[in-house]
Every structure is written in structure tokens, then in C-alpha cells.
Write a sequence for this structure.
């Protein structure tokens, strides 16, 4: 297996790059989706969130009120740390299991683990490559406002709740510049895929033992 850790700030283009790699044949795991699974009704995580934040963060149908919890945690560092301490261990455990399962099913698979908080949550799966998507903050805020309906204050708060691009670049093997056109991003993703295939071919041809 070839395991890629894909990270980057909010609305920096991680999913866009991941989708392109999937078109080339990669398997995609998405930490945001896993973080939703571990807080479904009936889970220990959801109960822990209710214990920490109160009934106001649960809807009448028993599901997590994501909007309400987001309003709380993106303007309060201490509250966000409490939420992270509940959700991140469960996501780490589930992602570890799913990565192992993907490897068991296809030892030659290329797995892209899209994990927004790779740096913040100190995700330390044995990545073959760490890829960082990077766009200027003003582009992130514009995308959040125009495409996801956040108001500019909320959008800034979300960007500011994450580490800086400098901190992400410090752990990157490859940086994809996502501040330009979509075609420019896709071109870099395509070039990355060529490099990955090359690495895999070399690894296969390397005499073992
Ligand atoms: C606060 C919650 C309920 C808001 O839900 P909402 O549906 O509005 O956002 P969603 O989960 O789709 O996240 C969107 C983006 O916000 C950013 N983000 C989410 N959680 C965090 C966090 N704890 N710290 C910093 N940024 C975050 C990420 O860039 C993410 O891609 C939700 O984000 C959450 O439960 N967060 C804690 C779990 C977590 O850290 N998830 C991120 C990957 S593990
Ligand atoms: N050059 C570019 N590269 C990538 N995305 C771009 C570019 N220009 C505009 N966009 C748009 O920006 C948005 C990026 O969203 P995307 O879901 O890929 O980001 P993300 O980092 O996965 O977000 P999140 O952190 O919320 O999961 C998309 O709507 C995409 O079309």
C-alpha cells in the first residue's frame, strides 16, 4: 500500500485534489466523514459531547446539531479543545482500522487519507507522503462565504481555528498551490499521480532481501 496524508486549511482544495487522485485510481478516506460517523446517535462520543456541552447541541431527532456546536467551538479555543479530545481519539482508531482494511484488500492500493487536522491532531499514521494544499487566506474566506454560506466573521474564525500554512508546510513532502485556477490545481494533482506511480514501480522492482 502507498499511504498519502492529505491536509490543508479549510476550503483550501483538499477534496478537489483527492477527487482527482481517485479518478486516477486512489482510494479516498475522509476524516470529516469519519468524524461524522463516530458521533452518530447511540455512540459513546455523542453521549460525551452531550455531557460536555449540554442538550442544546442535540436536535429533536437525536442527531448532533452541528451548526450549534460549530457556533460554540469556533469562537472558543477551550471548548474546541474539549470537543477535539472527545472526537479525535475515535477518528484515529477508526481511520487506523479502515487503512488496515484497505491494505488487506489490496496491498498495492494507493490510499489518500484526507485529514484537515493532520498537524493539530498529531495524526501519525505511517504516511509514505504528506501532501499539503495551500491557498491564501483571502481565497479560503471567499470560498467559505460564496460557496458555503458562512458570514465573513464565521469564515475567518474557522480559518483562524487552524494552524498556519507555515506549520503545515513544515511537515509537507509536497505542497499543492490551490490559490490559482482549478486547472492549475488539477495539473499539480496529475503530476503528483505520475510521481506516485513511479515510486510504486520502483518499490516493486527493488530486489527484496
Ligand atoms: C464542530 C462541528 C460539529 C461543525 O460541523 P460542520 O458540519 O459545520 O463542519 P464539518 O465537520 O464539515 O467541518 C468542516 C471543516 O471545518 C474544519 N474543522 C472541523 N473541526 C475542526 C476543529 N476541531 N478545529 C479546527 N478546524 C475544524 C475542518 O477544516 C473541516 O474540514 C464539526 O466540525 C466537528 O465535530 N468537529 C470536531 C471533529 C473534527 O476535528 N473534525 C475535523 C477532522 S477530524
Ligand atoms: N485552484 C483551486 N483549487 C482547488 N479548489 C478551488 C480552486 N479554485 C476554486 N476552488 C474551489 O474551492 C473549493 C474548495 O473546496 P474543497 O472541498 O476542495 O476544499 P477542502 O479543503 O476539501 O475543504 P474542507 O476543509 O471544508 O473539507 C471548491 O468549491 C473548488 O471548486
Amino acid at each position: 500500500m502507498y499511504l498519502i496524508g492529505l491536509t490543508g486549511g479549510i476550503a483550501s482544495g483538499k477534496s478537489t485534489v483527492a477527487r482527482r487522485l481517485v479518478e486516477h485510481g486512489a482510494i479516498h478516506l475522509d476524516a470529516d466523514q469519519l468524524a461524522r460517523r463516530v458521533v452518530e446517535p447511540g455512540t459513546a462520543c455523542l453521549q460525551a459531547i452531550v455531557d460536555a456541552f449540554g442538550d442544546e447541541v442535540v436536535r429533536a431527532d437525536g442527531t448532533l446539531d452541528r451548526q450549534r456546536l460549530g457556533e460554540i467551538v469556533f469562537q472558543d479555543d477551550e471548548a474546541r479543545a474539549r470537543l477535539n479530545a472527545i472526537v479525535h481519539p475515535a477518528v484515529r482508531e477508526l481511520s487506523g482500522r479502515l487503512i488496515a482494511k484497505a491494505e488487506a484488500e489490496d496491498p498495492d492500493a494507493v490510499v489518500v487519507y484526507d485529514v484537515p487536522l493532520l498537524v493539530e491532531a498529531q495524526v501519525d499514521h505511517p504516511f509514505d507522503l504528506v501532501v499539503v494544499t495551500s491557498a491564501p487566506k483571502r481565497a479560503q474566506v471567499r470560498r467559505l462565504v460564496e460557496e458555503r454560506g458562512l458570514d465573513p466573521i464565521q469564515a475567518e474564525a474557522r480559518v483562524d481555528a487552524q494552524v498556519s500554512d507555515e506549520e503545515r508546510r513544515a511537515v509537507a513532502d509536497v505542497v499543492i498551490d490551490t490559490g490559482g485556477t482549478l486547472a492549475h490545481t488539477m495539473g499539480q494533482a496529475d503530476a503528483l499521480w505520475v510521481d506516485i506511480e513511479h515510486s510504486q514501480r520502483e518499490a516493486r522492482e527493488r530486489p527484496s532481501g
